[in-house]
From TrEMBL:
Keywords: Chemotaxis, Hydrolase. This is Chemotaxis protein CheD. Pfam families: CheD. CDD domains: CheD. InterPro entries: CheD-like_sf, Chemorcpt_Glu_NH3ase_CheD, Cytotoxic_necrot_fac-like_cat. It comes from the Bacteria. GO terms for molecular function: protein-glutamine glutaminase activity. GO terms for biological process: chemotaxis.
Length: 145
């Protein structure tokens, strides 16, 4: 098994089917996971700010293309985007709106999302099964997508 622990502003793409991607401590950050449903190529990113989303998504898509993926076969799962700090800027909401907008613009199907709220969470994506699990830090609640 290949495992990636994606820290803030990190991303990874793998052709290895048995790959796991982890994004820990997603407050306002977004954990984005992509999988090509025909080739099995997968990837993930831990996105900090809405301004970085176009760059991160374009970089991921280029890596998918370079590994032989047809971008029309991509499926996305996303988590995070909470407003954990009451600053009035609502960075979590801005991140959520920006990532969803960019995925739609790129015609990437959004298969699952766990976004918003006020609690931080950690997300894990298993490329082999396509399953995303989300665990909330404060409540220990576990969701599976």
């Amino acid at each position: 098994m290949r495992e990636f622990k994606l820290n803030i502003d990190e991303q990874a793409v793998s052709t290895y089917e048995n790959t796991v991607y982890n994004c820990l401590g997603l407050g306002s950050c977004i954990g984005l996971f992509l999988k090509d449903r025909t080739t099995g190529i997968s990837g993930g990113a831990h996105i900090l700010l809405p301004q970085s989303i176009p760059h991160v998504l374009n970089s991921l898509l280029l890596q998918f293309k370079n590994k032989g993926s047809n971008l029309l076969n991509l499926r996305a799962k996303v988590a995070g985007g909470a407003n954990v700090i009451a600053t009035g800027y609502e960075v979590g909401l801005q991140n959520t709106n920006a990532v969803l907008e960019h995925l739609v613009q790129q015609k990437i199907f959004i298969a699952a999302k766990d976004l918003g709220g006020s609690l931080s969470r950690s997300a894990q994506f298993h490329a082999g099964t396509g399953e995303m699990t989300v665990r909330f830090s404060q409540t220990k609640e576990l969701k599976v997508y």
